Amino acid sequence: MTHATHEPNPALIASYALSRHVPAMARGFSICTHYGELAITDEEAKRHPAIIRTVKRIMEARLKACERVGGAA
Fold first, then answer.
1. pTM for the complete prediction?
2. Rounded Cα gap, residues 36 and 22, in angstroms
């Protein structure tokens, strides 16, 4: 019996991140690095909205790149 492998769809992942993850960042979030995790509280996120705007721009660029190569959601 063979099992179908399901590759993650990068466009779908970016689209979901834009619709769910990025807005949720206003309530706090974590950044995971090879050295550990940084926790950003909701108050810190509110005081530094540029972080969320930057992540949004990154995910928008990723989605556009996927759409250019035919991986649109």
1. 0.77
2. 21
16-51 residue pLDDT tens: 999 999 999 999 999 999 999 999 999 999 999 999
Question: Could you tell me the two tokens for 18?
Answer: 């834009």
- CB-based burial of residue 1 (10 Å sphere; 0-12 exposed, 13-18 middle, 19+ buried)? exposed
What count of other Cβ atoms lies within 10 Å of the Cβ of residue 15?
19
What does the CA dihedral 14, 67, 62, 23 come to, rounded to 10 degrees? -40
Write out the two tokens for 59. 């995910």
Structure-model confidence comparison of residues 39 and 2, the more confident one: 39
Token couple for 29: 């979030």
